[in-house]
Amino acid sequence: MDLVTPRARPRLCPLAKSGSGGGAFTRPRPGRRTPGGGGRGGGGCRAMAGDARPSGVRAGGCWGAVESRTSFRAPRPPLPPLSFLFVLFLAAPCAWAAGYKTCPKVKPDMLNVHLVPHTHDDVGWLKTVDQYFYGIYNNIQQAGVQYILDSVISSLLADPTRRFIYVEIAFFSRWWHQQTDATQKIVRDLVRQGRLEFANGGWVMNDEATTHYGAIIDQMTLGLRFLEETFGSDGRPRVAWHIDPFGHSREQASLFAQMGFDGFFFGRLDYQDKKVRETALQMEQVWRASASLKPPTADLFTSVLPNMYSPPEGLCWDMLCADKPFVEDVRSPEYNAKELVHHFLKLATDQGKLYRTKHTVMTMGSDFQYENANMWFKNLDKLIQLVNAQQQANGSRVNVLYSTPACYLWELNKAKLNWSVKKDDFFPYADGPHMFWTGYFSSRPALKRYERLSYNFLQVCNQLEALAGPAANVGPYGSGDSAPLNEAMAVLQHHDAVSGTSRQHVADDYARQLSEGWRPCQVLMSNALAHLSGLKEDFAFCRKLNISICPLTQTAERFQVIVYNPLGRKVDWMVRLPVSKHVYLVRDPGGKTVPSDVVTIPSSDSQELLFSALVPALGFSIYSVSQMPDQSPQNSWSRDLVIQNEYLRARFDPDTGLLMELENLEQNLLLPVRQAFYWYNASTGNNLSSQASGAYIFRPNRNKPLFVSRWAQTHLVKASLVQEVHQNFSAWCSQVIRLYPRQRHLELEWTVGPIPVGDGWGKEVISRFDTGLATGGLFYTDSNGREILERRRDYRPTWKLNQTEPVAGNYYPVNSRIYITDGNMQLTVLTDRSQGGSSLTDGSLELMVHRRLLKDDERGVGEPLNSEGSGLWVRGRHLVLLDKKGTAAASHRLQAEMEVLAPQVVLAPGGGARYRLERAPRTQFSGLRRELPPSVRLLTLARWGRETLLLRLEHQFAVGEDSGRNLSSPVTLDLTNLFSAFTITHLRETTLAANQFLAYASRLQWTTDTGPPLGARIFPTQGLNLGLLHWRQTLYRLSHRGSPE
Ligand SMILES: [Zn+2]
User: Do the Cβ atoms of 881 and 745 come closer than 8 Å?
Assistant: First the structure.
């Protein structure tokens, strides 16, 4: 047992003064994303929440922080060899969990009200990240994070009983680096004493609907690493804190559990769900967040906050609020203390009835509050003092105290109750009838794609940095660095960034951050490619290949194509490049000519070169391309609207030009399927509700969408390496449906925009697939790109739904895939970014690809989603798979992996100088000596310290998902000599976010009503076996080979 046993918890002083009061209350508006507040309080306490660290445990963690970049510059004792390490892990569990030892004392026989002073600092929303940090443009929103932190630290120092939590490390780390040594020491002391506590600790508070799990893990890793390196285990958050995201995914809870969090707090859930929970005393439960992982691996204690994240009515004492402060002087005509105390006691008692223990929590703060922290703390001091004085004065049974979410959680844990279990998720979120927050699943599709593409690019950058070693950072192209893109990607995960719910100028700034992050990664990748290939080329990164622009390939007579494959298995990848009107000769890395095609694009009369590249695992292949003289491309044009390869055939209706039928030739499956584009007319409010469709909310003004066009102008292109049907639906909507040889999916590349709004109607454009499949109201969507959840139309698994929006109320986030099945056949659509999706009639499946709206939806952003500029015009891809149900996962899992970690194409003019003279240049390279099995995804390979790497491997199949190739079975990996570029000398396993060594991580135990606790050690420890959907993340110490083999 390694259940926590905190020792010598500090004593807090009993309360002294008393008072009473009265006054008027203002109310924070529920649902509205604006600073809310109103109220009163009183009381003070002067005792030190001292350092009660058990002797012998040093700051910096029970078992030390995970090694930092800098720590490797100093000599350290070597890590024990691998075999010894595993023995050590099992034999020496941490005796206590950090984070609870400094919690305040409570009164077990009373109702304890835990006041949690906090600020919610969006990492961009109405203002950019920098504008928020420095407090610029306060005319847009009064908000300056640097002043908030200055002010809070001063107020904490003024009274040792006061506590505060901070969350967003993107802001905190920036502030920290601007402080003097003296201030940093003071803050370290506050953290050590538990007076300043970090909750969540990610770089941002990430969105849960439109984020991919890989990017969530990366952003949490970045924030938690800063805390671990700066404060050691004292700064390690014990609770996850997602008070503002607009609905909650099951995968997020699973990730948090595997990062080692003890509990999870959030504020927003469906209004009907909340009511049912309050009545059934289920505001707090254990969330069983994986159907594949053995409990309690993905179990997470989850608490729904009583008032979202606002203070109770009438008790907001920020400078942004209008509630009356405590006036305890009875001679004052403004005297209100008695009334305020009475009000508070009633609130606390009523709220306490909705929860199961003798503890309840009040969130004392809101958006960008505490810029003048003294206003808050002075009144909270009085509140505590005056309310607790009632215990002596008239036998009140309410005890109020400064606390934190972790300390509240600790008391719940000690209550030793049996908790009910939740197995589904918290989507979609509605804050009232007709008010479904399902629009942001699709808002700003261009930004959503740019974010996903940047994830791909960052992983390639990280891998090349790991494979090439220090040569990647300093080389012939200058200083390369993956950190700026890593930080930009972390910022993009914020719940107003990739979600598409920020103002336009903020969205533009997010895109700027990504773009600036790409540049040092390009330098890094150039250095690495030169190092690994031995060739110093003038590398070019054509960022506009999706719109057929690349100056090098369009003008040069000869050039080189370097294709890097970030997967742990070799790929056969169709390269497609814009070229001039010629025929080209393509040679593979061995100098052999490979088949190629030049295809004319009917809509633009431009040409694209196609050839298939074979690229080894975690490596590259270099192809050379040269023009052939005096020939122009010959394409065959055909009338018969059928395209096919050895696996698939797609037929089109000759009258309408629409897709009509899809056939899987391999599995002998035939499915009539019609695909077309439609649009919903966005509601601007009606007699049922004034709610309009906007950046957050989706609300069509009728349930049936309108055709963009009932038919398409078509053009068939057949070449040896591709068959395409080009469909033109309207001036602003077109599509190419294509098949490449050996491809098991149909690719639909759509182009939508600018959506016309001259008619005064906002439009929400969908792509819809209609089949005759008997789907019984069911469809399936992924959770953050990982596990799959079953969805049932007009139904919620845990309460009886009163459906008010038959379309919007059935929309769910689709991060990577959505499918329908009749139990025999399965039609799956993979997406290239997050989108909203649904199945509104049996056999049908739809995805929202673009939206342009003319009204604001009144959730605070204050702008209609009617962007000007590049986001008006959006291109994307849907990959359609038709399979037998039992074999579908093998197709969609592996294809989705390749979508997220697609090969990266780098171009070069060719003829560059030899870079490393000691050996011949190479045109092909693999970082792996053997391929990974198909069920294993290499999620992260990144530099951690000078001589350490972070490696994350995961099993990407769920229980029972694949019956054909047995990919749903556990696998065992042998890492010995796996990598060609370096030798692993030592390794240590960590938790998912790499901020704790796995062997010493422990979590609080919770008993569920489904059975007894299953042991405190929730992390699997059996070496490198990968169970279903299991992870392994390991820090490696390595020695780089001078020249990789
Ligand atoms: Zn927020």
Answer: yes
CA of 125 to the centre of ligand 1 (A): 8
Rounded to the nearest angstrom, the distance between the alpha carbon of 793 and the centre of ligand 1 is 29
Q: Count other Cβ atoms within 10 Å, centred on residue 968.
A: 21
Identify the three-state secondary structure at position 361: strand
Contact 111, 352 (CB under 8 A): yes
- Residue 971: the pLDDT is 87
pLDDT on residue 45 = 27
- 245 CA to middle of ligand 1, Å? 7
Q: Which residues of 214-234 are buried (b: 16+ CB within 10 A; e: fewer)?
A: bbbbbbbbbbbbbbbbbbbbb
Token representation of residue 854: 């003319």
> Which residues have CB under 8 Å from 856's CB, separation 6+?
692, 694, 695, 862, 863, 864
Tell me whether residue 244 is one of the annotated catalytic residues: yes
What separation in Å is there between the alpha carbon of 1023 and the centre of ligand 1?
Answer: 40
Q: What DSSP assignment string belongs to 607-631?
A: EEEEEEEEE-TTEEEEEEEEEETT-
Query: What is d(CA 361, CA 105) in angstroms, rounded to the nearest whole number?
Result: 15
Give yes or no for a contact between 210 and 813, defined as CB atoms under 8 angstroms apart.
Answer: yes
Which runs of E-coded beta strand occur in 358-512?
359-364, 398-402, 418-419, 421-422, 474-475, 478-479
Quote the ligand 1 centre to 367 CA distance (angstroms): 7
Find the largest Cα–Cα distance for the chain: 101
Strand residue runs (E) in 408-471 = 418-419, 421-422
The span from the CA of 475 to the CA of 196, in Å, is 43
Pairing of strands 263-266, 299-304: parallel
Question: Which DSSP symbol is given to 881?
Answer: E
Structure tokens at 635: 């394409």
**List 244, 425, 431, 962, catalytic entry:** 244
Question: Do the beta carbons of residue 224 and residue 236 sit within 8 Å?
Answer: yes
How many Å apart are CA 245 and CA 253, to the nearest integer? 13
Nearest-5° angle of CA 255, CA 983, CA 572? 65
| 8 Å CB contact between 828 and 880 | yes
Residue 232 has pLDDT above 60, yes or no: yes
Nearby residues of 361 by Cβ (< 8 Å), 6 or more positions away: 113, 114, 116, 303, 305, 306, 403, 405, 408
Q: Phi and psi (nearest 5°) for 91?
A: -90, -20
* Residue 742 to residue 141: CA distance in whole angstroms: 55
CA angle 316, 19, 395 (to 5 degrees): 105
Q: Which of 405-409, 452-456, 524-528, 966-970 has the lowest mean pLDDT?
A: 966-970
Task: Inform me whether the pLDDT recorded for 33 exceeds 90.
Answer: no
Distance in angstroms (rounded) separating the CA atoms of residues 104 and 77: 38
First to last CA, the chain: 47
Report d(CA 325, CA 203) in Å as an integer.
34
CA geometry: angle 890, 891, 896, nearest 5 deg: 105
Distance 963 CA to ligand 1 centre (A): 43
- What's the CA gap between 835 and 80, in Å, rounded? 47
CA of 435 to the centre of ligand 1 (A): 18
Q: Phi and psi at residue 682, in whole multiples of 5°?
A: -65, 135
Q: How confident is the model at residue 919 (pLDDT cuts 50, 70, 90)?
A: confident
- Give the CA distances from residue 867 to residues 443, 833, 870, in Å, rounded to whole numbers and listed in that order: 11, 19, 9
Tell me how far the alpha carbon of residue 244 lies from the centroid of ligand 1, in angstroms. 5
Residue 335 has pLDDT above 90, yes or no: yes
> How far apart are the CA of 206 and the centre of ligand 1, in A?
9
Question: Three-state DSSP class for 950?
Answer: strand
**421-422 vs 284-288, strand pairing mode:** parallel
The identity of residue 591, as a single letter, is G
The size of the chain, in residues, is: 1045
Mapped onto helix, strand or coil, the DSSP state of residue 818 is strand
